[in-house]
Amino acid sequence: MEEKVLMSGSEIDRALTRIAHQILERNRGSKNIALIGIRTGGVPLAERLQHKIREIEGVKVPLGILDISLYRDDWSLASSQPEVRSTEIPFPVDNLVIVLVDDVIFTGRTVRAALDALVDFGRPKKVELAVLVDRGHRELPIEPTYCGLTVTTLPNEHVTVRLKEISGVDQVVLERR
Amino acid sequence: MSLLLQGGRVIDPSQGIDAVLDILIENGQVKALGERLSGQGARKIDCHGLIITPGLIDMHVHLREPGEEWKETIATGTLAAAAGGFTAVACMPNTQPPNDNAEVTRFILKKASQEAFTRVYPIACITKGQKGTQLTEFGDLKRAGAVALSDDGRPVPDAFMMRLALEYAKNFGLPVISHAEELSLSQGGHVNEGLASATLGLKGIPAEGEAIAVFREIMLAKLTDAPVHIAHVSTKVAVEIIRWAKKQGIPVTAETAPHYFTLTEEAALGYNTYAKVNPPLRSAEDREAICQALSDGTIDAIATDHAPHSDLEKFIEFEQAAFGLVGLETALALALRLVNQGLLSLSRAIALLSTNPARILKIAGGSLRVGSPGDVTVIDLEKKWVPRKENLHSQGKNSPFLGWELQGQAVMTIVEGKITFSRM
Amino acid sequence: MNASFTANHILDIASLSEEDIFYILKLALNLKEILHRPIPKVPTLRGKLVALMFFEASTRTRLSFERAAKSLSADTLSFTARMSSVEKGETLLDTILNLESMGVDLFIIRHAMAGTPHFVAKHSRARVINAGDGFHAHPTQALLDMLTVYQKKKTLSGLKIAIIGDIKHSRVAHSNIVGFRKMGSEVYVAGPATMLPLEREALGARVCYRIETALDQADVVMALRVQKERHGRALLPSVREYAQEFGLNLKRLELAQKDCLLMHPGPVNWGVELAPELQNDPRNVILEQVENGVAVRMALLVALLGGNA
């Protein structure tokens, strides 16, 4: 298996700084914004964005965690019981601008599941999507609002995002099988 | 026609014989027993490497006819018996109608004379309709052909009634067989009280209930000085009481069934209805005590309590499922297991399966003495086989031993000089 | 959490491993949040058909299962009958096979006869959950009890569990004895001796003839519902005597740990097994048991019908 580094730690950090600025710029400040990280990769990224927004604006925007496994459309195709973890959205989502955060967008199915889950919590004013990497191959009409890096991949290539909180290192790599 | 069985190892506990001998059967009787018999004109059967014993006798079976022919008939039940090496069976009276009058006894014997593969000895009820309140006509029943009395399936609940039965049976020399169960303790129970009842959440049947009933029968035998035979002993406590009674000289005999010396209550775990039987399968300690009693003479006979049921009675909720299992075709192999385990001598096993039941029921057979009936079982001790629903001859397939790898099987069954079943 | 759940049916606690139990409890904790959402429903089991087969009267268990199934978007069929339909000439097996032909994926079975769910599991292709069978087992009740204890005590081992009441005829007691012992806790049982198991039937629980011995330093005190008659015979002289000798009240609870949990599978006979003064006691977690019941049953449905079910 070949591996090619797409983003280093500092490049990830710069991308997140840019996205934080874009979120604030697009929404004219941090008012009514909440971040929701999609398990697992989206959670540390959402935390980092929350931190960056606080550095810029001095405001701690609400942060939630969403586990989408109960909303997956491939549930009955999985070989064993998918792992279900807790969802923690400790604030009402009604009338907020919700920024869903994930590490990679690929087919779009995860985001579809997250959107379904989100509406069960209420009616947000607007939902946006921030991803670190867009690797293409969409199977649904879903596009990110904010994106760190767009990369064209072949079907046998795989994008892996490694984050300090989970893997002990910050790195985005392209793997070829 | 005469038969000459040549070169088999003859085991006859009634004469203390264990030797390679020929045996000549003529006119339905044992004509001669000895080395290199000539037997001119007789059909010769090579029995080298095989065991020859007096025909096996099962003193406790349920043939279900009349009345429950979907479970078993006299024809199919005795075919299963012959396949299992038995030359005679004594059938319990809990048919529909029950064998509580000479008419039913005669019916059974008539059917048997036409269709049976073994001798059939009817056992009649002690009380009318097995209700425990009025004695049956012992004299009339005996004249019709009944060999013993029992309300099997149920005890005689009232001690005084049982006393009357033991006393009255003395007039006719009929053995009384007791299904020893204290109903007030066992009622509503399905499995042994202990591991099985606790694990399965079912009401248990305590071992002590059997012991209480056995003790009552023994005291009544002592009081009346009439013999009593205890059916299907399943517990250590009952064995201990019987052992004590025999030491006192009280006229008691006892039988157990292969499932009690082979299985424990664990066989019922998982709600296996084929292991639902009354008395229930007991603890490992009980099983060991039964084995010990078979070897030391406390228990006199092995009887199967063959109780065929169809899936209508067994393929349902455990609590609704009928008690009982089939045993005729596996009994010999299971007894031989004890021989192979060193718990019984071969001669003792044959005594338990043939000589002793004949003595208890006071019927012919159980011996190869010259002049005895020509009832013989030929056994292959080495033969390995697996009981399966497809290869059982009984209509009842409710055996907890399906799929077991067994060793030893009857290869020829001869009744009154006629081969009724052969695998040779 | 490791995804190590392998059981095909939930028939009793004895056939679940310690890992299976933790899997279910942790999954239940994660699913519990769904019940607090503005729309407490997820699409996970859309298209799955769950048959609620109640051959014995039950309100709360059936409703709890129904709530669980519906919040996972499963469809439900409800079947209630006094007894099995044997009386109508139809065997239980016929009933089950007929429903299976209608596409039932999972049977939830409550039956007065022990072993009936095992029977169905043996003969059906569908999954089976035992919702209480005779005096045998009530595994979902034991799991929700364990969940309640786990949530409050953060452990299931090293605890002293006291169960008070008719132990012998209680499937709840049976499953809890097996369950808590499996997880490493000690179970003490007490009550009228006519309602206690003999040592040989106690499944490893400590049988106490003095209620104080069971309550002493207990971490969890579980009271069972009193039924005066069993098998048509009174096992108790009177309900009044039961309340006096074996009922739980403030004074008796003083023997237990200060932070003990007071539990009851419901419905409670206030004034008999529990004194009314315990109704609002902070140790009383009876209503939390009810909520945990829905969560545990959701977890079981997901575990049995999720994946390649």
Low-confidence stretches of chain B: none
Broad shape of chain B: globular
Q: Number of helical segments of chain B?
A: 13
Q: What is the CA-based Rg of chain A, rounded? A: 16 Å
Number of helices of chain A: 4
Cα distance, first to last residue of chain B? 19 Å
User: Which CATH top level class of the domain at 11-69 and 94-149 in chain A fits?
Assistant: Alpha Beta
| Count of distinct structural domains of chain B | 2
**Percent range for β-strand residues of chain A:** 25-35%
Q: Which CATH C-level class of the largest domain in chain B is it?
A: Alpha Beta
Mean pLDDT of chain A: 91
Tell me the name of the CATH homologous superfamily of the largest domain in chain B.
Answer: Metal-dependent hydrolases
Structural class of chain B: alpha/beta
Report on this structure.
The complex is a heterotrimer of chains A (177), B (424) and C (309). Chain A is α/β, with parallel strands linked by helices. Chain A has a domain at 11-69 and 94-149: Rossmann fold, CATH 3.40.50. In chain A, 28% of the residues lie in helices and 29% in strands. Chain A is built from four helices and eight strands; from the N terminus they run E-H-E-H-E-E-H-E-E-E-H-E. Chain A has a five-stranded parallel beta sheet. In chain A, strands 1-8-7 form a three-stranded antiparallel beta sheet. In chain A, strand 4, helix 3 and strand 5 (126-134) form a beta-alpha-beta unit. The model of chain A has no long low-confidence stretch (mean pLDDT 91). Chain B is of the alpha/beta class and 424 residues long. Chain B has two domains: 3-51 and 373-422, Roll (Urease, subunit C, domain 1), CATH 2.30.40.10; 56-361, TIM Barrel (Alpha-Beta Barrel), CATH 3.20.20.140. Chain B has helices at residues 74-83, 102-115, 138-144, 159-170, 183-186, 195-200, 207-224, 236-247, 258-262, 284-296, 311-314, 331-340, 346-361; strands at residues 3-12, 17-26, 29-34, 43-46, 51-54, 56-61, 86-91, 119-124, 148-150, 176-178, 191-192, 204-205, 228-230, 252-256, 301-302, 376-385, 406-415, 418-422. In chain B, strands 1, 2, 3, 4, 5, 16, 17 and 18 form an eight-stranded mixed beta sheet that branches. Chain B has an eight-stranded parallel beta sheet with strand order 6-7-8-9-10-13-14-15. Chain B is globular. Chain C folds into two domains: 18-138 and 290-305, Rossmann fold (3-Layer(aba) Sandwich), CATH 3.40.50; 140-285, Rossmann fold (3-Layer(aba) Sandwich), CATH 3.40.50. Chain C is 35% helix and 16% strand. Chain C has helices at 18-32, 60-71, 92-101, 116-123, 139-153, 171-182, 211-215, 239-246, 250-253, 286-305, and strands spanning 49-54, 75-80, 106-111, 127-133, 160-164, 186-190, 206-208, 220-223, 229-230, 233-234, 261-263. Chain C has a five-stranded parallel beta sheet with strand order 7-6-5-8-11. A four-stranded parallel beta sheet of chain C has the order 2-1-3-4, sandwiched between helices. In chain C, helix 4 (116-123) links the parallel strand 3 and strand 4 (127-133). The two termini of chain C are 20 Å apart. Chains in contact: A-C, B-C. The interface between A and C is medium-sized, with 24 and 24 residues.
